[in-house]
Amino acid sequence: MSSLSRELVFLILQFLDEEKFKETVHKLEQESGFFFNMRYFEDMVTNGEWEEVEKYLSGFTKVDDNRYSMKIFFEIRKQKYLEALDKRDRAKAVDILVKDLKVFAAFNEELFKEITQLLTLENFRDNEQLSKYGDTKSARGIMLAELKKLIEANPLFRDKLQFPALKNSRLRTLINQSLNWQHQLCKNPRPNPDIKTLFVDHSCGQPNGARAPSPVTNPLMGAVPKAGGFPPLSAHGPFQPAPAALPTSLAGWMANPSPVPHPSASAGPIGLATNNAALLKRPRTPPTNNPGLDYQTADSEHVLKRSRPFGISDEANNLPVNILPVAYPNQSHGQSSYSSDDLPRSVIMTLSLGSAVKSVDFHPVQQILLLVGTNMGDVMIYELPSHEKIAIRTFKVWDLGTCSMALQASLANDYTASINRVIWSPDGTLIGVAYSKHIVHIYSYQGGDDLRNHLEIDAHVGSVNDLAFSYPNKQLCVVTCGEDRVIKVWDAVTGAKQYTFEGHEAPVYSVCPHHKENIQFIFSTATDGKIKAWLYDNMGSRVDYDAPGHSSTTMAYSADGTRLFSCGTNKEGESYLVEWNESEGAVKRAYHGLGKRSVGVVQFDTTKNRFLAAGDEFVVKFWDMDSGNLLTSTDADGGLPASPCIRFNKEGILLAVSTNENGVKILANSDGIRLLRTVENRSFDASRVASAAVVKAPPIGTFGSPNIAVGTSIGDRAASGAAMVGMNSDSRSLVDVKPRIADESLEKSRIWKLTEINDSSQCRSLKLPDNLTAMRVSRLIYTNSGLAILALASNAVHKLWKWQRNDRNVTGKATTSTLPQLWQPSSGILMTNDISDTNPEDAVPCFALSKNDSYVMSASGGKISLFNMMTFKTMTTFMPPPPAATFLAFHPQDNNIIAIGMEDSSIQIYNVRVDEVKTKLKGHQKRITGLAFSHVLNVLVSSGADSQLCVWSTDGWEKQASKQLQIPSGRAAAAPIADTRVQFHLDQIHLLAVHETQIAIYEAPKLECLKQWVPREASGPITHATYSCDSQSIYVSFEDGSVGVLTASTLRLRCRINPTAYLPPNPSLRVYPLVIATHPSEPNQFALGLTDGGVHVLEPLESEGKWGTSPPTENGAGPSTASGAAGTDQPQR
């Protein structure tokens, strides 16, 4: 087959895959033998579909092709044979032996005899070589790993394991280019030809059928000589319904609750029929008619800015899919001729904030100002051209005395709060902040650093989940929703409560105020997937509807207010991005390409009445509003969390995206780059913002009102100028910028080096005061509040250090800037574990802390003790040895259930309340040394001194998978029974495994090893390691006393802290860390428990802010395993 024919097969494979012809795709892969789909192969092997496995393989190789192929078929048939024996199905085993395995007798008769003899054994595991055979799942997993290696090494599979890099819907693109070419050759080309078939060449004949509208044009674009062309190809033919009559009330949502997408393009208003043109934010020339065509295509983009009359061969190969000189019929939404080139995808700056970003919003007038809210409750305003933080407010209740008792009690226990939403008012003079605890803050902003307290509202019981501004009755209001299942409306000037809307049966997740002409309303969504709509009255909800997949959903309108979209993620991690037909309350179009296992709720935004964007799977994904298929995506040069927070500016030329490293990346298109450069070059100062930002609120408008009258400013002039250049498709500015960015990146990669900290002046460290007997620190943990550190020494005594609130430490959290107190109750008693008859020095100590820090469960070789953390009194003891407990973990959903790892290698699932062992899990060969629950996957992962990992379902407690750690060659003998620890990443899917020889990242529940890091031997064995609280870093302690800081997503060492930085010189005493613990909310703070009994807290210098810088990303570094999802449990150290 020729090279071009081979490439055509790949195009067809892509087309079939996009159209979801799943069986046909794999049949063509097999019959052509061009592409071996390893993922499909893995799924078949994992499911034991042996006939399909061999049939698929037969398209690429035969049993006797070479030794690799022979081994592949042998391993598959041997596994099939062993599974039959395991099921005691002797007849089937004999059949497999004769039909499938006998062929190998000619090559190795002895092996065939040995396999035959397995029939005589009651249990084939009695054969020494098969003694370690586990269950079916684990055996298939082990075999699959071996098969993958054999396939990759087999020369017959060379160049068949990688699918070529193709743009989306490449076959459609080529067909469109062909049609475009044919149309150029027409003698009498029609402006809008009607295509009915691909079976014959096109030529323009007499008009037939309805004509499409004239193209949207713009005088800035100049003449468009031949604006004819074809409607984009789609999976469905053109659909031309009569325009639907618009319903006259919200009840339209209730009238036809069909979840099936409707192809009609008529997105009628939610209230009365309205003149859409009056609502356009940036009105364009409207079409002459609307035949209601709805093309659900791949990468729909307009070509008006680069259509040519003839001889387009030099451009044809570069045209994105469906770029044809065509007027899109769906023009009732006031679209203009933007293309995907207009999307902001170039990273132009990164802002480092110091804590995780939860919400961002661009100023509606001065679009170079970015508002940011963080998980630590900080509100910040950044001026982008200068990269400067021009205003900041940390979390603080302004008037605690007026707050509810519930809020006061919550703050007394933990004086911190995360931000759920920050948003500018439509005119940019107010800032709304919704916190995770009860309250809303409204700040007034007069430009520069002039940020003043305006209103403090004790809005909801529990978390305030969302906040928005609206203009009912010509009055600016704040709409809030919360964990208490209620929506409330407040006067934005006085703070007076105006409306309370009740009716949701679950926490309200988001609100979306809007208006159609004189009808003002609010959409609300809840965590159970219910959508409701409210008018500003007390008549209750007008709409009760289910979000796709019963997901936690946010809703947003296009900029011109005519199209409604929603994006959400359900509890299973399935995400949905859809457009709604408001008139019918039905999904009009679903957008494909979101992940099936999203972490957290996927956030989205709209821009230019044309594009949608969502943060998902460590990238930002883009869609054309008129196409269900993914348009493009960007990873923003890497470093994004699994579900990044995203926000466009008003013009859609800048995009803010949150990062793993507690920062925000600013992406820009050519206009955005030009805007920032223009302002930067004019020595922008904040006083100019003040003069332009002080504007009056409009008398009436919508949320994000387009009708605001504001004075012209540098930002406005630059933005409008940039937009004009964008219309002319002038991308010359990119030529100026990209090489500079590339050069900077190259320069950074040249000069990057590992940060070495050798002296106490290079970091902040604090040795915790201790007047008790100094004994080796065996276990160490921060309390979940971050206010204290708990240690368990080898003599079975616990020590608790508490930090006090004072002027130098206003939060009272653990810090190196103030000394804590070694705390004891007035009774003077110590929390001391039962040691029975054992020597505590020989025991394996363990403990676990309850979520509310009120009690600790602990053991040091004797009974397990439950202590009250306030009084230090022993509440109860249970489970006397033997066997002794060696690891403890609380169930994430039920503090009464604990998993107890035992000295005898078993795991006991114990109910404290009824004093009963629910079940025993057996799968390890040596004592249990680590346990970690995932509340996302509903599994428990265990690790043992046998260097084995096991996955157990928390539903039925059956074993799902097991994996032996890959010990580096030459180091296995040094660590025959070394402890192995496990800890879940915040995303609850990726798993950190710690062994004295290595750090490894696995993906649960299949335990696929994604990355492995083996330290230099000079450091000595690893003594312990743990994730930072945001899971972006891994702190590793070594026997030589040093601590390494790794970037979690790449497992690359970026900083080494040598013992001379935190220990006084003492050559006669060898001191090193045994355990390391990380602060629950400060990602750059950690504590070390040492062999001499000392506990040290370390932080980077304030001027540095973090431990070193990440090395430049290398090609092939693999997918990031990092995530920005929230977690709750502190791992045991």
TrEMBL record:
Residues 1100-1133 are annotated as: Disordered. Signal peptide: none annotated. Keywords: Repeat, Repressor, WD repeat. Pfam families: LisH_TPL (PF17814), TPR1-like_2nd (PF21889), WD40 (PF00400), zf_topless (PF21359). Residues 1116-1133 have a biased composition (Low complexity). Residues 34-92 form the CTLH domain. WD repeats lie at residues 457-500, 921-962. GO terms for biological process: primary shoot apical meristem specification; regulation of DNA-templated transcription. This is CTLH domain-containing protein.
